[in-house]
Design a protein that fits this description.
- By secondary structure, the chain is α/β, with parallel strands linked by helices.
- The chain has 14 helices and 14 strands.
- Strand 9, helix 10 and strand 10 form a beta-alpha-beta unit.
- The longest helix is centred in the C-terminal third of the chain and has 18 residues.
């Protein structure tokens, strides 16, 4: 028994019913990208049922008979961030949202500075690339790490790898993680970069330090002796809880290659992958063209991978939130997400009431006791 769960980070499919409460009514990541790029080539996603999910008025949506089960999912948890979305996919619904800040209070920051022997600069919401333009030169002059946040529940620390080594940055983030728990901050993120003023570039050595999640389907699988392999930032998102093996990646291309390599092992268990470039490189940066190219790259890889998925295997493709690159600002958008499932006879899954239906589906597939929330889609 083997299953593959792929999360296309931020690939939402239309605003959620409660999107107005988040300022996101009208957001539609996939819909607006397709509107800007009507010739976008996603033949394998559409063959699995993406056209029916989107309700696109196109020949592909009208005439193609999907070979996979297809539907949409709504998020029940409060929030629209990566951690919340992934935890709910794994069967943990959060009734209380993570905390967000315009600026972190001294009561949180001063103990971190004192214990870490540093002095932060920044401490305001900003895009990760803009903050380097604004404070990168000052960081080089002073050696002080850059502290910033966003609309999500994140405390981010950026530092130049040549003057603030990675090991030192990671240790500082681990220290910050301990202090952030009582403030209910979802993630502390190490944001290393290189370059010179006017030409700073974030490196692939980002590392996320998440809160410890509640019990999830990943823990249940491990408890049953079933291997769980996290590909990409999955282990970071779940603070390594319920992860047997972790394979970090540097890009979508790297992630897809890792998936193919793992699948070729023909090992039993769950392979849980996150492809982050959609969100990190294109959604937050409001790069519609780049987002469209990334979708086409994934679809081409999917076409080469699908023949390797046998009738007894389970493949689930979904997302964790939206990040409409046509939307104002740089933050995530509260959206429904597509869900495409290759296993058994194809069917319309309709609109699911929680992302936790994924956890319930995995529980059923691996013959575990019924999950305590969500409904199986098999």
């Amino acid at each position: 028994m083997r299953a593959l769960l792929i999360v296309l980070d931020s690939v939402g499919c239309g605003h959620a019913p409660d999107a107005a409460a988040y300022g996101d009514e009208g957001a539609n990541t996939l819909g607006h990208i397709l509107a800007r790029h009507p010739a976008l080539q996603l033949p394998y996603c559409f063959a699995m049922g993406l056209g029916q999910v989107l309700g696109k008025d196109s020949p592909a949506a009208q005439t193609a008979r999907p070979f996979a089960s297809h539907g949409r999912m709504q998020e029940r948890s409060a929030g629209k961030d990566t951690t919340t979305g992934h935890w709910e996919l794994a069967g943990a619904i959060l009734e209380e949202p993570f905390a967000t800040f315009e600026a972190f209070p001294d009561a949180l920051i001063q103990p971190i500075e004192a214990e870490g022997g540093v002095r932060f600069i920044g401490n305001y919401p900003c895009s990760g690339t803009v903050i380097l333009d604004e404070l990168g030169a000052r960081h080089l002059e002073t050696g002080c790490p850059i502290l910033y946040t966003s609309a999500d529940s994140v405390l981010q620390i950026a530092a130049h790898e040549e003057i603030f080594p990675l090991e030192k940055l990671y240790a500082l983030c681990e220290l910050a993680r301990r202090h952030c728990d009582e403030w209910r901050i979802g993630r502390v993120i190490a944001r290393p970069f290189l370059g010179t003023p006017g030409n700073f570039q974030r490196t692939a050595n980002r590392h996320d330090f998440s809160m410890q999640p509640p019990h999830t389907i990943l823990n249940a699988l491990c408890d049953a002796g079933i291997k769980v392999t996290g590909i990409g930032k999955i282990s970071d998102i779940f603070a390594s809880s319920g992860i047997t093996e972790s394979l970090p990646t540097k890009s979508n291309a790297d992630g897809m290659e890792r998936i193919s390599e793992c699948w070729a092992r023909n090992e039993a268990g769950l392979f849980f992958a996150n492809l982050v470039d959609f969100d990190m490189h294109f959604g937050h940066r409001r790069d519609v063209d780049g987002y469209a190219r990334a979708l086409e790259e994934f679809d081409r890889w999917l076409g080469s991978f699908l023949p390797q998925v046998g009738p007894k295997d389970l493949l689930i493709i979904t997302a964790d939130h939206g990040n409409d690159p046509t939307w104002p600002g740089t933050d995530h958008t509260r959206e429904e997400v597509p869900v495409l499932i290759k296993h058994g006879a194809p069917q319309s899954l309709g609109t699911r009431q929680t992302f936790a239906d994924v956890a319930a589906t995995l529980a059923k597939f691996f013959a575990l006791p019924a999950w305590n929330c969500g409904q199986p889609m098999l």
